[in-house]
Every structure is written in C-alpha cells, then in structure tokens.
Amino acid sequence: MTNEWLFRALEESRARGFLGPGPIEPHLEHAQGYRDAWSTLSTEPPTHWMDLGSGGGLPGLYLLSEWNTPGTLLDAMIKRTSFLSEVLRWSGAPVNGSVRNGRAEELARDPELCDVFDLVVVRSFGPPATTAECAVRFTRDGGYIIISEPPDSDGGRRWDPAGLALLGLEAVAVVEKGPTYQILRKITPTPDAYPRRIGTPAKRPLF
Questions:
Q1: Which residue, of 23, 51, 56, 197, has the greatest Cβ tally within 10 A?
Q2: In total, how many domains does the chain have?
Q3: What's CA 104's distance to the chain center, in Å?
Q4: Per-residue pLDDT tens for 130-167?
Q5: What CATH number has the domain bearing residue 83?
Q6: What is the domain range of residue 155?
Q7: SS3 for 135-191, per residue?
C-alpha cells in the first residue's frame, strides 16, 4: 500500500510539472515494475542502487520507500534535484535516499559513484546506446541495469550485442510486467573511454 509521504510527494511532483497529468496510480504501477523485474534476479533488495535521470522521482521515490536500502537519485536539472531533496526532508520520508545533480557523463567518474551500484534503474533517459553508455560506469561488475522500454518496443532487439559488448554489458532478459523492462548485466569492467564527453553519447551513439 502506498504510504502517505510517497503519495504526497508524487502529487507535488505532478503539480510542479515533473510527472504527467492524470492519476498517480499508473505511474506507481510502472515504478512497481522495476521492483518486480529485480525480483527475477534476487530475493533481496539491491544493497546500493541508483535512479538515473530521476526527474520527478519515479521510480526512485517508490523504490526508496519499498526497499529501505540506500538509493541515489541523479538528475541533470537543478529544479528537479532541488525538489527531490526537498521531499526527502519531509516527515515520513525514507532516511536512506541521497540526491546528486549533474550530467551522468561527468558524475560517472566521481569515485563515490563509479562502479558501486548493484542496480541502476532508468526511465525515459534516451535511446538504448545513450542509456547504456551513461549508466554503465555507475554499475559494479556483475551488477545490473533495468530500463523501461517504450510501448512499441521490439522485444529487446534495440539492444545491439556488439555495441553493448564495447561497454562490458550484455542483455540478459526482457521482463513483461505490463510495461516491458530490459535487463542488462555488466560482465566486464568499463573501458576507460566510456562514458565519453557530455553530449557525445547522444550525438555519436555506439549503436
């Protein structure tokens, strides 16, 4: 059952234009899909995880309240990270959340964030190659990336095996929980070249 703090935070996110209009419940169901996708990999919550491009706070705020393990919400827009920091100070908020502002291409090389997360979750960040390149260095060796696929997804064929291999990744599963979730696993260390400079992963995608 959704707790009072989470519902209040999501209503405020919607009021500020960070979530789409309409009921909160579909957004929550989408966030729950990440939890369910992770449950196909482990019976325990991830020890450390990140919501990359957290935006209005989903799925990150939901997962913080659900898992009760340390989670980092990262976004490049100051107004969004300011909002996330604000709601994490509200009464009833989980005590294990942190917020980072900045571009993924730069923060991925921060020693506090590099190669440390069991799981990186991604929603509406960008095309497959951009998402993979920006997420991979945050992920520890053997860790996972779970990405929500668009409604017209072609069942995982967007994720080119050769392109993923350049980053040390492989596609290991596609999970259907209403929406579709692609699961990637980091199988080798990230080459020093990745991620490339700000904007390059989007302008010159690897695949």
A1: 51
A2: 1
A3: 11
A4: 999 999 999 999 999 999 998 877 666 899 999 999 99
A5: 3.40.50.150
A6: 4-15+22-175
A7: HHCCEEEEEEEEEECCCCCCCCCCCCHHHHHHHCEEEEEEEECCCEEEEEEECCCCC
